[in-house]
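[step 3/7] fold_predict: job queued, chain A
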Amino acid sequence: MTDSAIPPLDMTLDELRAALGPLLPQEAAFDGWSEAALSAAAMALGVPPERARLAIPGGAIDMIEAWFASVDAEMVVVLPSERLAAMKIRERITAIVLARLEIATPHREALRRAIAILALPTNVPTATRLGWHAADAMWRLAGDTATGFAHYTKRATLGAVYLSTILVFLDDESEGFADTRAFLDRRIAGVMRFEKLKAQLKPDPDRHFSPARFLGRLRYRTR
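[step 4/7] structure written:
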């Protein structure tokens, strides 16, 4: 995270980007992910809009990415490793996803607009990359050290859980986001069953492991 003691005008462009990230959604809720929102965030921070554009030069997508990076950073502060260490893995993942949603709670309209932009066909590759990065950050914070096939399946699965939970969260009007929490609990339970199933599968010494065959078996098992 950026050292808040550094005067904004003395920040490097990377430091300025990090400082602008958490300010952007409150402006984007009104002005959209636009130049106007970036300029307003810059003025709130106390830097010229022209310098802010040097730190975040890529328009709406770059602004969204800067915000998401600030969520990654805040997530680590909210959930220090010593707090997570006392939890079981399912509890860790649930706590981490909920922490990200709580960080976004004051900015649901900005998040809604960000998702709409990322859902555009031209932005799908970027959306996929950002979703993967979020899932990787969450698993790493949870203490995951998996490699190989497990590394990828864990992130792909959690990424799908996270996105589907965000979509529920955006329209959730229940008290304390109870509907979102219940939905997340069900999806996390599915992730845990997935991991348990992988652990139970015994390798066939006469055949090489096939990811496609594995996923096919999983699909038929869960119907």
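[step 5/7] annotate
The chain has a mean pLDDT of 88.
The longest helix spans residues 148-170.
exit 0
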